Amino acid sequence: MAIMSVWSAQAILLLLVPSYFIYAKWRRKTYPLPPGPKGWPIIGNALDIPLTSMGPVYASWAKLFGEIMILLTGDLVLTSPIGSSIISASALGQTIIIIDSYDVAIELLEKRAAKYSSRPRAIMAGELMGWDNVFAIMPYSDRWRNHRKRLVKYFRPDANGISVHSPRAYEFVHRLVLDINETPNELYDLVRHTVGGLGLSLTYGLPIQRRNDPLVKFADTIARILSDNIIPGKYLVEVLPALRYLPSWFPGAGFKRYAESVRWMSTDFKIQPYERAVEAFETEGAQPCFVSDSLASFESREARAVIEEIQDVAATIYVAAADTTTDAILSFIYALATHPELRKKIQNEIDTALTDESGSLRLPTFEDQEKLPHLTASVMESQRWAPVTPIGVPHLTTEHDVFDGYFIPKGTVIVANQWSMLNDERVYGPSPHSFNPDRFITSDSDGPEGAVKVNPSIRHPNRIAFGFGRRVCPGSHLAQSTLWLTAACLLTLFDFEMPLSEKADYIGPDGKVDQRFDPGLLCQPRRYSRDIKVRSSKAASLLEGLRMGM
Ligand code: HEM
């Protein structure tokens, strides 16, 4: 009996395995890949894949390569593409799918998250330079899940959606406005230093100097090297992984020699600040932080593994938080410096809401958000108009899928074109390339005559700007809180102007990213000159009060 059942099991297997492959092949044949540009043999679309202005270029593909509509006009038959919310391309055998619509992003990245939540292999930055401990680039796995859980637990929001770390955000933002008052020409570096310092303080609890803090400088150097080397397409080894086995001395293996020369950085950044944090726990000046909080709630797993995990997550925080939040703040300042009429409108709103009966002005707090709808709308609009991550961070599929009649193979790189979703006229109204916070404003029927509020029925840009599904940004509450508070404090205290010749939209008239912005993976206005002054005597006395209290 037993032998019979082994035989029949084998026979079934013999029949099933080939049938599975035939079925898989048939399915691939039955369902085509989504439409997209025609590629060359072997290299596919490798020469078409944009390395700059990706958001608008991919959006133009979505318009161009959709289904064909046939128009009959008299004897004439015209064909016109009607666009597609999902398109595909390939580069050296790697399939890439670009999602151009919010609804499709929700369907695939959120509702079918179990298949769409991995990340493409990062050979240069991860495997060769040693940053594979950063969970933002880890594949979908238990290791990633454990790391992410730790970060989510610490960076949670309160009941009003504000980061639980808002007291530390106040401390750093108040320091920032004092520093800008002292050296307004250093605005760019001061914002960077403040955001980095806040991230490191929350992670390691170490005291951070107001300027030129050595830990912030070290972290900043490292983050720049990492972000320069994570650019897709920069290294051939990303598409031909076998190249990673070339010996370092081999001609053309310069990438390996470079990776080896900077590999120490990933180890040092993981170990050094962690050890300093642990030593500093008992010393004066150290504050509660991610490391102290995580070590206090040790779980039953082996100690060494837990410590490694805490070190890894701690190292992830700076690299994920610093550039992104800095860029969001700099884009906001750029937008308001080039739209003086909007800035004045918001400052009037601030004066009305924050001036007490005796006529003195106070600094804004998170409790003021509802009283400052124009300010909140302008923060939302800056995230929509110049999104920090125009094409998000790519996901990778871990199973075959079929969507809307299209085949999406396992191992496909999925790009969510956030820029395109944030420029959807059907959602955000006409002229989406222009900076116009009023698109988020509506009348408030519960308030006094003429009162306005943020329109809750227009999709909040944060719903798109922080990504989707199981990989959605776990630092979004801290980022939003820091951005709103910085914007509110800056507008309360300062006037900032730029020559009108410097005014530009993120997207220029040619449909590409304007030269005043970085056209790469992160959107950042290039260094700009502007004139910053304290805006009134009330603002000056507020700054003086703040200085005395520090
Ligand atoms: C304005 C500021 C920020 C923006 C626009 C932003 C945006 C994003 C986006 C688009 C993703 C990818 C989501 C996806 O794959 O679908 C992401 C991931 C991530 N972000 Fe942020 N982020 C910001 C600030 C922060 C901050 C302050 C932190 C840390 C406290 C943080 C930590 C992370 C981490 C760890 C990931 C990787 C998540 C994973 O792979 O599971 N981010 N962020």
UniProtKB/TrEMBL annotation:
<dbReference type="InterPro" id="IPR017972">
    <property type="entry name" value="Cyt_P450_CS"/>
</dbReference>
<dbReference type="GO" id="GO:0020037">
    <property type="term" value="F:heme binding"/>
</dbReference>
<keyword id="KW-0479">Metal-binding</keyword>
<dbReference type="GO" id="GO:0016705">
    <property type="term" value="F:oxidoreductase activity, acting on paired donors, with incorporation or reduction of molecular oxygen"/>
</dbReference>
<dbReference type="GO" id="GO:0004497">
    <property type="term" value="F:monooxygenase activity"/>
</dbReference>
<dbReference type="Pfam" id="PF00067">
    <property type="entry name" value="p450"/>
</dbReference>
<dbReference type="InterPro" id="IPR001128">
    <property type="entry name" value="Cyt_P450"/>
</dbReference>
<dbReference type="InterPro" id="IPR050364">
    <property type="entry name" value="Cytochrome_P450_fung"/>
</dbReference>
<keyword id="KW-0349">Heme</keyword>
<dbReference type="GO" id="GO:0005506">
    <property type="term" value="F:iron ion binding"/>
</dbReference>
<feature type="binding site" description="axial binding residue">
    <location>
        <position position="473"/>
    </location>
    <ligand>
        <name>heme</name>
    </ligand>
</feature>
<dbReference type="InterPro" id="IPR002401">
    <property type="entry name" value="Cyt_P450_E_grp-I"/>
</dbReference>
<keyword id="KW-0503">Monooxygenase</keyword>
<comment type="pathway">
    <text>Secondary metabolite biosynthesis.</text>
</comment>
<protein>
    <submittedName>
        <fullName>Cytochrome P450</fullName>
    </submittedName>
</protein>
<dbReference type="InterPro" id="IPR036396">
    <property type="entry name" value="Cyt_P450_sf"/>
</dbReference>
<keyword id="KW-0408">Iron</keyword>
<comment type="similarity">
    <text>Belongs to the cytochrome P450 family.</text>
</comment>
<keyword id="KW-0560">Oxidoreductase</keyword>
